[in-house]
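Our preliminary data section would be incomplete without showing what the modeling component actually yields. Below, a chain of 183 amino acids is followed by its predicted structure, encoded as tokens that our downstream tools consume directly.
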Amino acid sequence: MQGPEGFEQIALPHLDSVYRAAVALCGRSDDAEDLTQATFARALERFHTFAVGTNCKAWLFQIMRNVRIDHFRHRKVAGNSVPLDEELLPTEAPAEQTVWSNAEDLLENFSDEQIIRALKRLPEDQRLTLFLVDVEQLSQQEVADITGVAVGTVKSRTSRARDELKSHLLSYAKELGFTGRNR
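Predicted structure:
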């Protein structure tokens, strides 16, 4: 089942997961939407290479990572550009959105403000690794395949990210009484 029907049945159910990962990675819903769209466009183009029966979500995350890297490479060569007509357009007040308007809104729906700040302070590679391991619950091997690093690097990034979160949140946890004694 490698045609468009197969793509709809196998890949499209992972749209929300890919979008959540893109928001966690990009930090803004506009960028996340663009990344998600580009990811699914490339996945549809290359769906004939997908091995049916394997982890489609991991395959999509790997495509997303590659699309993001390609975008950065292109931007590095071409430089940032803003079309002139967009600069001259009057800005409208953004429509009020209740969820998923940016990474902060997304994370606020699931966690505390202090955790959001701590997550934003993590380097991108650690934040993505932690998201894929702890939120999407992919195996370390799958995350290694997606990010193009060794399993040991995934373990190290996950451990460092958790340690960093712990150090950022320790004083807050003490304030809330989650720790019995000072460590």
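The chain is about 70% helix and 0% strand. Confidence is low (pLDDT under 50) at residues 84-90, 92-111. Preliminary results of this kind motivate Aim 1 of the renewal.
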